[in-house]
Every structure is written in structure tokens, then in C-alpha cells.
Write a structure and sequence with these properties.
Order of helices and strands: HEHEHEEHHEEHEEH
Radius of gyration: 22 Å
Shape: extended
CATH class of the largest domain: Alpha Beta
Structural class: alpha+beta
CATH superfamily of the largest domain: P-loop containing nucleotide triphosphate hydrolases
Low-confidence stretches: none
CATH topology of the largest domain: Rossmann fold
Amino acid sequence: STAHQQLVEIARALSMDARVLILDEPTAALTRKESGQLFEVMDDLKTKGVAMVFISHHLEEIPRVGDDVSVLRDGTLVGEVPACTSERELVTMMVGRDIDDQFPRHRGEVGEVLLSVTGLSRERAFQDVGFDLHAGEVLGLAGLVGAGRTEVLRAIAGADKYDSGTVRVRGKELPKGKISRAIVDGIGHVPEERKS
């Protein structure tokens, strides 16, 4: 597992008598449980006098593992604050202005339904996924590693078949597993693994 690989890397560094560990996004591909296990190892190392630099874009992890936070913006150190500093304050430091200035709370106008997904299911992958995506709208699809996000998107894009449900673009139903048809009907897909 990825968590096991992370622990092996830490053990390797410690076997070389490292007293300072630099952990660059160590939780990016871990589940919440695996992250918790990693944090326990970090707590143990901390009590043994090992110093650590922890790099993460998961701001909620900072108070759990950190004592202090150094905030960079455009390659420049803009501040050092206690790890208990609120996420809102950290984001303000990171972007250089209040987050509400950058992302106003009001929703812009959205247009017609471009993509409609109804009851999309594939055994052991995802069940009953449905949403409407309008012109001018951005929809976030969230979930832990292995939750089925990639599989859902591959099915919508025609790269993989699904067992039941419908995918419609501008009201027109797409056939299952026909990537060429999805492309013709206006679906572009940028896969998670872009080396292939």
C-alpha cells in the first residue's frame, strides 16, 4: 500500500541516521486512516528528537502535526505563524488577500444543462451516481482514493462501460463505452494518469 511505502521511506531515512526528515506531501495519496497511522509515527519520531518539515496542501493536517507554519507565496516567505492559525488566515497569507475577495459567495448565472448523468452504476465500482452540469458551472467530484471518482469519470467519457444508468450530452443519450462518440458529442477527458 501507499502508506506502507511511506513508512518504508521514513525507515530508510532513519536507518541513515537522519535527524531531519523532509516529508513532501506524504498524505496526498493516503486514506484518512493511513494518514492517522503516519501521524502516529511522526509523533513518535518527534518525541525521539527527530525534526521534520511537513509539506501539505491539506491545511487541516497542519495543526495535527505541526508546531509552526512557514507560508510561501510566489517563492517568498510571507510569514511564520503557529500551527493553530486558522485555515482562513493561512489561505489569506497564501493568496495575498481575503479569500472572499477571490471567490465571492454569490453564484453566477448558469446556462442550459450540458451533461446529465442519471443512476450511473457499475458493480464494485460506483452506484447510482447522478447530477446535472450546466453551461458555465464547475462541479467538484470528491472522495478518498478508491472511492470511484476516476471510474465514474472514465464511464462518463466513454472510456469504460457501466452496468446501468444514462449519460446525456445536451439531451442526447450517449452509448456505453464509446469514447469516440463521447468525443464527437463534446466530452473531453484529461485522465488522472497522463503518461499513457
